[in-house]
Every structure is written in structure tokens, then in C-alpha cells.
Structure of Pyridoxal phosphate homeostasis protein:
Amino acid sequence: MDFIKNNLAKINTTLPEHVTLVAVSKTKPVSDIQEAYDAGHRVFGENKIQEMVSKYDELPKDIQWHMIGHLQRNKVKYMAHFVDLIHGVDSFKTLVEIDKQAKKHNRVIRCLLQARIAKEETKFGLPFNEIEEILASEELAQLENVKVVGFMGMATFTHDKEVLQEEFSSLKTFFDQQKNTNTELTILSMGMSGDYQLAIENGSTMIRVGSSIFGARNYII
Ligand SMILES: *Cc1c(COP(=O)(O)O)cnc(C)c1O
């Protein structure tokens, strides 16, 4: 009883005011999300578009839905009418598609560019220089229905604090540099259940926490 509500309260009491908690509800039933909602929480993250759409349809409409997973471009259209923030954008092509779909609904969709910070081999995320290129490009300025508002990073899957610290702080440094010339950059999404305290110490403004709120997931996706 009150498992989710208590977990949320515990985390919230430790969070600085400038940090937004995204409750990652992937694989969890709508009843779990409703419990968090009833406790006052409004920001939820999912990593599969179809799953997010069906939950959106069933749940209160003042929920802010964040897409945190890897994006399949051909599915962007299914969430374009409601998604609040897309964390995992890792190509200019994807921004073009989000812009196109957002336009159909007369919306501006906020996006984060996913940076590659993990030392481990990963195909996700952009190197810093490619992020810089996208931000500076004429083409981006022409996309009226997307707004790049910050970056997202996933650290190496490790308990080694030094590795995590180095990866988080490298993104924070890059974020601060880019902010100097781009005032629209306000969000730095870093940190999950296992590493969010460290991420906050290293400048995160948005954490994505799943298992510490809803409990362990039954399967890995
Ligand atoms: C699942 C997921 C999370 C949350 O993971 P937990 O370890 O359960 O907190 C955060 N970010 C992304 C991108 C995820 O896919």
C-alpha cells in the first residue's frame, strides 16, 4: 500500500527545486501511473511510442508525457498531438520529422538532443561536435515547429563513481558552453535510479527515475 506514493515523496524531499523528476513508467500498468498522479505527480516518461499513446488515451489529460526512448521516425506521428518533451533525438532527420508532424497539429514540440557520453560501446547519441553543428545550422533555424531546449545523456552502466562523474561533468561543461550562445537551452536530462544524486551534483536539471519509484521492472527492454 502506498508504495509508489511513498517512494515519490522520499525522492521529492531530496530534490533541489530546479530539478524536474520524470517518473519513468515504462512496462508499468496505468493503475501505477494513476497512483502517482493521485499523489500529485504529473510528469511521466515512456520509452515506446505505442505504449505511451495507449496510456495517454486512458489517463488524465494534464499529464506531461516525455518520450525518453530511442525514436523510430515513422512513429513520431502517433504522439505529435500530445508529447510534451522528446529526450532522445539523435539526428537532424528526426528533428525534421518531428517538425513536420508537429506542424499538422499546430504545435511546437520541445526536444533534447541526446549526447553520447558513455565510454561503453553504444550506438545511441551524438558526439558533441555533431550537436554543435546541428545547433548552428541554417536548417534548424527553419524548423518552426521544433524547439531544441537542451541535452540528454546516459552514463555508462556502472557503479564506478569516477566514471559516472566524468561522463556527467563532461556533458555539463558542454551544456554550459552552448548555453552561452543559445538561450533556449535550459534542460540537462541526466540521471536514473542508480545515479541521479551524482547527476544532480554534476548539474542535471531533469532526472528520469523508474525503478526507484515503481519498483523493479519484470523484464528488460
Ligand atoms: C528506463 C529508463 C530510465 C529509468 O531507469 P531506472 O533505472 O529504472 O530509473 C531512464 N532513462 C531511460 C532512457 C530509460 O530507458
Q: What stands out?
A: The chain has a mean pLDDT of 95. Residues 169 and 202 are 5 Å apart (CA to CA). The beta strands are 20-24, 43-46, 64-67, 85-89, 109-115, 146-153, 187-190, 206-209.
